[in-house]
Amino acid sequence: MIVFKNYIKIVKGYLPMVLMYTGIFLLFAVIATSAGDSTTSFTTLKPKLAIQNNDPQSSFTKDFVAYLAQQGTIIELTDATYAESDALFYRKVDAILTIPKGFGSDFQNGLAPKISSQVVPDSANAAYITMFINQYLDACQYYLDHGFTETEMRQALQAYHRVGTEVSMLDVKQNHLVKAQNFYNFANYTILATTIMVIGLSMYTFYHSTIWRRNLVSPIPISKINRQLFLGNACMTTIVWLLYVVISIVMYGDMMFSKRGGLLILNAFLFSIVALSIGFLLGILVKNREAQSGLINVIALGSSFLCGAFVPQELLSETVLNIAHILPSYWFVKNNNAIVLLSDFKGSSLQPIVISMMIMMGFVILFFGLANIISKQKLKKQAFL
Fold first, then answer.
1. DSSP state letter for 253
2. pLDDT tens digits for 163-190?
3. Rounded to an integer, what distance in angstroms lies between the CA atom of residue 269 and that of residue 237?
4. Phi/psi of residue 115, each to 5°?
5. Per-residue confidence (pLDDT) for residue 383, from 0 to 100
6. How many Å separate Cα 115 from the centre of its chain?
7. Cα 317 from Cα 133, distance rounded (Å)
8. How much is the pTM?
9. Are 350 and 260 in contact (CB under 8 A)?
10. How many CA atoms lie within 13 A of 144 on its CB side?
11. HSE toward the beta carbon, residue 109, CA cutoff 13 A
12. How far apart are CA 48 and CA 175, in angstroms?
């Protein structure tokens, strides 16, 4: 096992780099995990608005103002212009609405009266006010268009606005599941970077012309050397994978022992094998250490950005996702997202996940096959001598 022992000695030299990548990754993971943990309740947003009602006698307008009072907080202002400007400037109100005289009758007669408004520029609350005003008036217009009387319309609107939506916060296990998904998605970069770096550079050392020349004349058969190198690569890959599994268990607890947690761990293990095959191929293919280091960064960072590790796949364009299909990272991240959304563990639900795993194994066969072909060609041409 002399080759294996020498491989381990070489790997130890890259241990500081592995710890550096892991430390940086762990820092981001802790920040992402702690964000939002204190949120245990939900409160509906209620913007602040002032209303100048110039149509106070209309029953339609009274209902409209009552609706605005339900959706927001009404603030009383003086009639002075400077008071309105100050209220907006100092964010005492998000919007000031002016309802014109005859608004109720004009609206019911189809004259489309306009409500003038002053809002805080680029304010999300102001946009929210505009949204619920439009919703109310659109509903009124719908009832009028379908022949409702004013009384029938008021009853229908009251029944409509009594309908509410129950909001419940995610429980701890669900929250940890989403965080574990983000954890493993982001791990795409560090698993690729650390595994490819250590395996690729270690393989480069063994395939360096001087060392390879000595190996060829040694009493140890080349096949045995390759088997010991493969064993070393496998051990290194398993250690990197176990490192991230242990971190995820520490951070997310019992959730990682659930079925979904087990699938996330299995998916990461298969992707680690993909990273092993890429590192093995680079170690044989690229002779220059500097070029190999550059390729490692391009592969790890490029695939992470293109395949949804850093930016969710839902936010990526169709063109980018179509390109990402040719990269194993896409299927790894896609599987993580699918595992979190699993409704059950029946065959039909698991089928897309199994297919993605098989595609990742197809990449492994492809990369190892290419490495084997290139290795044989170089031996024939004595490229290492």
1. G
2. 555 655 544 445 778 888 888 998 898 8
3. 9
4. -95, 115
5. 43
6. 41
7. 33
8. 0.64
9. no
10. 17
11. 7
12. 32
